[in-house]
Amino acid sequence: MKNISFSSLALCFLFFFLATPTPGNSISTLDASTIDITNRTCRKCAEDSKTFSYDFCISSLQTIPVSHVTNLHGLAIIGMELALENATNTISTIKYLQTCGTLDSFALAALQDCLELYEDTLVTIVDAVAAFLTEHYSVAEVKVSAVMEASTTCEEGFSEKKGSGFSTDRRE
């Protein structure tokens, strides 16, 4: 199964927004062109990434009603909001795992590192949204890229111990 996160969804939308000029770029009504923006964006992101899933992108956006009536700018914001929600949920999961009492000291230490990384990502995502809304797109891109590194760094912390058998992928 592909390892994908909402932060990669946010980064993909941000890249696609920056690379695709759109006249007007304003909120539109629900029509074929709006649906096409979502499909084209998800397809382009999936084509340009080894880890990005078109199906994941579409299914993530289908749960957000406003995504059906937005433009690329809106999709980028939605992607960052999804990343914020995912980071918050990940923090809750980490805190739960730390209290369940069944993990060894290595796993607990790795979880603590992950907790610190994800707590930092909350601030970084909020900063990315602020940068994006003030049209500092390159700053937003750097911040979203940093957020993506948190999940990779967290995963690597668990792989340092051979045979730990612990996976940070909650979809398994």
UniProtKB/TrEMBL annotation:
Gene Ontology molecular function terms on file: enzyme inhibitor activity
Residues making up the signal peptide according to the UniProt record: 1-26
Top-rank taxon, per record: Eukaryota
InterPro entries listed in its UniProt record: Invertase/methylesterase_inhib, Pectinesterase_inhib_dom, Pla_a_1-like
Record domain Pectinesterase inhibitor: where: 33-169
UniProt keyword terms in alphabetical order: Disulfide bond, Signal
GO cellular component terms, semicolon-separated: extracellular region
Gene3D superfamilies cross-referenced by the UniProt entry: Invertase/pectin methylesterase inhibitor family protein
Coiled coil: none
SMART domains, per the entry: PMEI
Protein family according to the UniProt entry: Belongs to the PMEI family.
Protein name in UniProt: PECTINESTERASE INHIBITOR-LIKE
Organism (species): Salix purpurea
